[in-house]
Design a protein that fits this description.
Length: 386
């Protein structure tokens, strides 16, 4: 089964050799992977097991560590505690028995929120919304509901770095990614948003940022976290939190409470600028620069990266227009423009993307070298001038 298909199957089949390697790793207590590509520990079969519909926990200490059984899932390790839920690297037991043993993520509503009807509703709304989506570049949600007294959601585990990690590595070690790689990722992101925006519900994500994007081992960009998504009928995916969105990626009109799908395109413009420059320079400083939008235009990416063409500059600056009528009006138009620009620079294949990622994360942090310190000083002077 293809990884981008959207049938009822919960997980996907690995080649037998890779499956045996994972099994050997599990016996040793270590499995490669995780949402950010870090080494994740998969506890062996002898450890703590939670059983029973009442949530009572029984422990069995063994040489392989701890496994928590949660309904049909084996939870191997907590890999995150963000917002309303705790996230666990997991496997669905029945699927694993027939060879469909790709790890997944199981999110459970945190205990401290389990008695708040508003927060429970927010968690359920996000899961319901995500469960209806089926797109290659959007992380899949397979199941949700209540198990053993806990609200939960089972979804795709993206085994690769977040775009936030990639930008950090570019900034500190690898430098700007090839324009062809940046184009490939941006086109995939536009494709995902075109799908969201054209659903019958007209979903607006509202929190497009590097932290909510990951690159899989197959070179596919994956959009995650619909916690702030809003549908055309006005129902938000969540009411949790005061500031809705990630600082530096929020479109100016959001501050006035008026927005539509074009707020997501503005966020793509910020990400595009960062990818082409090779630094998350917009994350904080750019947010302040937005306050002076009419006094000071945004500098084109080619100011820092001479490999960026004039056409690409125009595409990015159009996405960053403060006047929404001058911005890209839909994700498909922006995607088409990026594809056209790629005729001059080339567009990386998924294999090219993964090959570059392997190289980029093998680079030593340049900040620790003499040349790196000089480059950093020059970079800081450019930021002060800009």
């Amino acid at each position: 089964m293809r990884a981008d298909s959207c049938g009822p199957t919960l997980v996907w089949k690995r080649p037998p050799g890779e499956r045996r390697a994972i099994e050997r790793g599990a016996r040793r207590g270590v499995v490669e992977g995780g949402r950010t590509g870090a080494r994740s520990r998969a506890e062996g079969p002898g450890g703590s097991i939670e059983r029973g519909r009442t949530g009572e926990r029984s422990r069995a200490d063994g040489p392989g560590g701890s496994i928590e059984r949660f309904g049909p899932y084996d939870l191997y390790e907590e890999i995150g505690r963000v917002g309303l839920a705790r996230s666990y690297r997991a496997m669905e037991r029945e699927a694993a028995r027939v060879g469909w043993d790709r790890p997944i993520v199981v999110e459970r509503l945190r205990t401290e929120f389990s008695t708040d009807p508003d927060l429970i509703g927010a968690f359920i709304r996000e899961a319901q919304l995500a469960h209806q989506l089926c797109h290659r570049h959007i992380a899949r949600t397979f199941a949700f509901g209540i198990l053993e007294g806990h609200h939960y959601c089972a979804s795709e585990l993206v085994e690769g770095p977040s775009l936030e990690d990639v930008l950090r590595q570019c900034d500190t070690a690898a430098g700007a990614m090839p324009v062809s790689v940046a184009l490939a990722l941006l086109i995939q992101l536009c494709d995902a948003l075109h799908y969201l925006h054209n659903r019958p519900m007209r979903i607006i994500h509202r929190d497009i940022s590097p932290a909510n994007l990951a690159i899989s081992r197959t070179g596919d960009l994956k959009l995650m976290d619909l916690g702030l998504a809003k549908t055309a009928d006005g129902r938000p995916g969540t009411r949790f939190g005061v500031v809705k969105g990630t600082k530096g990626y929020v479109a100016p009109e959001r501050l006035e409470g008026h927005f539509d799908e074009r707020v997501d395109l503005f966020a793509i413009g910020v990400i595009a600028h960062e990818l082409l420059v090779g630094s998350a320079r917009f994350g904080g400083n750019f947010a302040r620069a937005l306050g002076h939008a009419r006094e000071r235009p945004v500098d084109p990416p080619s100011r820092w990266n001479p490999q960026v063409t004039r056409d690409l500059d125009d595409i990015v600056l159009t996405a960053l227009q403060k006047d929404v009528s001058l911005r890209w009006q839909n994700a498909y138009a922006m995607k088409f423009a990026l594809q056209a620009a790629g005729q001059a620079t080339g567009i990386a294949s998924p294999d090219d993307v993964t090959a570059w990622l392997r190289w980029a994360f093998s680079c030593q942090a340049r900040r620790s070298t003499v040349i790196g310190k000089i480059v950093s000083a020059i970079d800081r002077s450019y930021r002060r001038v800009g």
